[in-house]
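hey
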């Protein structure tokens, strides 16, 4: 079944045909589909790339290593889609990629996806002795992202800071800094929705 769906992707002769074939392959939830779904990320077809990302996220951990192995050889577009997939999966093996993308990528949609992804890392999959330092790195990057020129990135960073603080198993030494930053955003950000998101995050953490 998966081989037929893979063949359909490879033989698609139109943008619509490719999109439909990728959707079907992504829905199959088959590990055999991973290389083909990753290849699709490099095609100039955003609709097909979105479906491929969805399929890779659905496949979860099994897609992480193939994505990381291919990442450096990607053209920019494919790399950007791969970051979205890693952000959606939340495996800590993708942490360094997300840290870099949230801080440095020139596309606001990629920075936003990476910032959101830093708030949804599955920390229990990381060796316990590495978690505190990794979370500290994530907080540092999110504090930077919370001052991004684009409001959607700042909004994502505020939500991710809340999620990260909730995920900490013991009260972290950076919590006060996060609360101060959220208060500042809530008081002074130029975008109403960002101010509201920061205020909500601060309230949730203060109550917690």
């Amino acid at each position: 079944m998966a081989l037929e769906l893979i063949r359909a992707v490879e033989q698609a002769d139109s943008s619509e045909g490719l999109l439909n074939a990728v959707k079907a392959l992504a829905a199959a939830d088959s590990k055999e589909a991973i290389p083909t779904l990753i290849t699709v990320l490099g095609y100039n077809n955003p609709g097909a790339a979105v479906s491929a990302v969805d399929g890779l996220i659905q496949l979860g951990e099994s897609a992480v290593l193939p994505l990381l192995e291919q990442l450096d050889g990607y053209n920019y577009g494919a790399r950007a889609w791969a970051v979205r997939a890693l952000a959606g999966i939340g495996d800590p093996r993708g942490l360094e990629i997300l840290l870099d993308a949230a801080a440095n990528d020139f596309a606001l949609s990629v920075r936003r996806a990476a910032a959101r992804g830093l708030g949804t890392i599955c920390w229990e999959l990381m060796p316990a002795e590495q978690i505190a330092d990794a979370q500290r790195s994530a907080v540092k990057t999110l504090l930077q992202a919370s001052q991004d020129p684009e409001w959607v990135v700042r909004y994502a960073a505020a939500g991710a800071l809340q999620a990260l603080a909730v995920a900490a198993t013991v009260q972290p030494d950076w919590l006060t800094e996060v609360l101060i930053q959220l208060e500042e955003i809530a008081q002074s950000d130029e975008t109403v929705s960002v101010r509201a998101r920061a205020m909500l995050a601060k309230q949730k953490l203060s109550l917690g």
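The two ends are 49 Å apart (CA to CA). The chain has two domains: 1-89, 90-208.
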